[in-house]
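Before going further, learn to read the protein records used in this course. Taken together, the tokens spell out the fold as the letters spell out the chain. A record is reproduced here so that you can trace the correspondence yourselves:

***
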Amino acid sequence: MAFDKKLLEIVACPVCKGKLEFDKEADQLICKADKLAYPITEGIPVLLENRAEPIEP
């Protein structure tokens, strides 16, 4: 199942409430402000702080 990019207009980072970016290659949403990556499972973003992975600079 593909991620609906229209969701990017309404979802926000649960930590800072900032904008998220879609990383198609890794199938995850990225918050550049917090340097966190949120997984997308079966087309559904998992926007839980405890499921986020830190991203390398």
User: Anything to note?
Assistant: The longest strand covers residues 36-41.
